[in-house]
Design goal:
Layout (H helix, E strand, L loop, with lengths): L1 H40 L4 E10 L3 E10 L4 E4 H7 L5 E2 L5 E5 L6 E5 L4 E4 L2 E4 L4 E4 L2 E5 L2 H6 L1 E6 L4 E6 L4 H19 L15 E13 L7 E12 L2 E10 L9 E8 L8 E7 L11 E7 L11 E7 L5 E6 L2 E7 L5 E7 L3 E10 L5 E10 L9 E10 L6 E10 L4 E10 L7 E12 L2 E8 L3 E8 L7
Parallel strand pairs: 1-12
Antiparallel strand pairs: 1-2, 2-3, 3-10, 4-5, 5-6, 6-7, 7-8, 9-10, 11-12, 13-14, 14-15, 15-16, 16-17, 17-18, 18-25, 19-22, 20-21, 20-23, 23-24, 25-26, 26-27, 27-28, 28-29, 29-30
């Protein structure tokens, strides 16, 4: 009986110890589970929300962002950059982004495997600030100013982000360029005025009266007095000016009286201007006295403007936009075709002209090419003819007779030839002086001039301009 009881107590102890062991194990497992749950509560949690991006100078747009339980904001880089027109190309494996920021030579690469951002020569390690979620690549907002110069200010209550950058964003640049092009189209449409006021010519109309008096006194010396009187009026459908310059230390002569009648009408074809009186001319012979005579010309008094256009046919990248600037003013734009060909018709104008071609690519690329054109005023437009006839009396001791005929013709946009005949009676051994001249501009930076006057002179010159600047 005692043996049975001993065995019963032994089995009972074993069962009791087993139950206690199982209970302690369950408590330990439960504690481990609770500990695991506590760690899970402190792990990465996020919420995807739709926020409003506000960009000054562009406008607003909505995009999805990730907001974490530790108040961190992650932005979809590819979506944001494509909206802002910043070059952004995803890698083949979908774990990297690359392109350029601000300018083409400032390249960037965002590597999500290495948690690294490379912008130019700068490398930024971004542990736990680059994540890939649902196939999209996100970056923590605090990395944008450091890596790309873009600041994102998040307002949680308004669910809005204010975006600013330290450079001109491509989307803002594109809007600015389109606005310039639209303004250019409006200006082109308003070139022709509604009303043209024609000049009224009068047979006689009183004009202005000018006078001046100057006197200087010298101690124990003579005094000097000068008196100038001028009268102007409209006369015979032109303008007349008469002036008297009197100096009391000289005798009154005809040289002290200046008079000139001038008629101009640039709308005429055969004669555009005429002068009678004290005329001023460029002569081959040396004349040191005033000339009283008359001049008629068919050249206008306005600033000469060349006629026609010359084409620019060149190649760039396919489907790029090309803008043409003349003296820093946008005048035309076009899109290159599938082969990259673009064409412009550039107006021919006199003087120095700067041409600038701006190229814009679909990814925000920008390139600039500059050219310069120099068209001298001595070159006439092609097939244009000008003449000048003058005759008069030289106010010298012998009252020499003077006459000159000058002709100029524009053979092409690059070549002008001219010639004429000059007569001066005081040259006894050869009063007639025939002459010929030319102006040729084979290149924009090179102008060749030449003149030959029979028995008087021969002159040749070259004018070459270079863009080289001193170091």
């Amino acid at each position: 009986m005692q043996i049975v009881q001993a065995r019963f107590f032994f089995v009972f102890k074993i069962l009791f110890l087993s139950v206690m062991l199982i209970a302690s194990t369950a408590v330990e497992i439960n504690a481990q589970v609770n500990s695991t749950d506590e760690k899970a509560d402190t792990s990465f949690h996020y919420e995807e929300i739709n926020v409003l991006f506000m960009v000054e100078g562009y406008g607003d747009f909505y995009a999805d962002v990730i907001y974490t339980n530790n108040d961190s904001l992650f932005v979809n880089v590819e979506e944001l950059f494509r909206t802002l027109k910043i070059a952004c190309i995803a890698g083949q494996k979908g774990d990297s982004l690359g392109g350029f920021i601000e300018r083409e030579n400032r390249m960037y690469v965002i590597d999500y495997r290495k948690n690294q951002i490379k912008v130019g020569d700068k490398i930024i390690n971004s542990q736990n600030r680059l994540i890939k979620e649902m196939g999209a690549l996100y970056m923590e907002s605090s990395l944008f100013p450091e890596a790309f110069g873009i600041t994102l200010t998040f307002n949680y209550r308004a669910l809005a982000i204010i975006l600013k950058s330290n450079f001109e964003l491509p989307v803002i640049k594109q809007q600015r360029i389109e606005k310039l092009r639209n303004n250019m189209s409006k200006v082109i449409g308003e070139i022709i005025p509604d009303t043209v006021v024609q000049r009224n010519y009068h047979f006689f109309k009183a004009g202005m009266f000018d006078w001046s008096v100057a006197s200087s006194q010298t101690l124990n010396g003579p005094s000097n007095n000068r008196f100038v009187l001028g009268v102007g009026a409209e006369l015979l459908f032109g303008e007349a000016d008469v002036s008297l310059n009197y100096y009391d230390q000289q005798k009154i002569t005809n040289r002290q009286v200046q008079y000139l009648w001038r008629w101009v009408d640039n709308d005429k074809q055969i004669i555009k201007q005429a002068q009678i009186g004290n005329i001023s001319l460029q002569t081959l012979a040396f004349i040191n006295s005033p000339i009283i005579g008359a001049v008629v010309r068919n050249s206008p008094t306005t600033v000469r403007k060349a006629k026609g256009y010359y084409p620019i046919n060149a190649y760039t990248e396919p489907n790029w936009m090309v803008e043409l600037y003349i003296n820093n003013v946008l005048v035309d734009y076009t899109r290159a075709d599938a082969s990259g060909l673009y064409m412009f018709k550039v107006p021919i104008v006199y003087g120095f002209t700067t041409l600038k071609l701006k190229f814009y690519g679909p990814m925000g690329e920008e390139r600039i090419e500059e050219r310069s054109i120099n068209l001298t005023y001595t070159v006439l437009p092609a097939n244009e003819f000008e003449y000048g006839l003058s005759a008069g009396i030289v106010q010298d001791t012998s009252l020499s007779r003077f006459g000159k005929a000058e002709l100029n013709y524009g053979v092409s946009r690059y070549l002008t030839i001219g010639g004429g005949l000059e007569y001066l009676s005081s040259i006894t051994n050869g009063p007639f002086i025939p002459y010929a001249k030319f102006t040729v501009q084979p290149f924009s930076k090179l102008v060749l001039n030449g003149e030959y006057a029979y028995g008087v002179k021969s002159w040749h010159g070259a004018n070459c301009r270079s863009n080289l600047e001193p170091s």
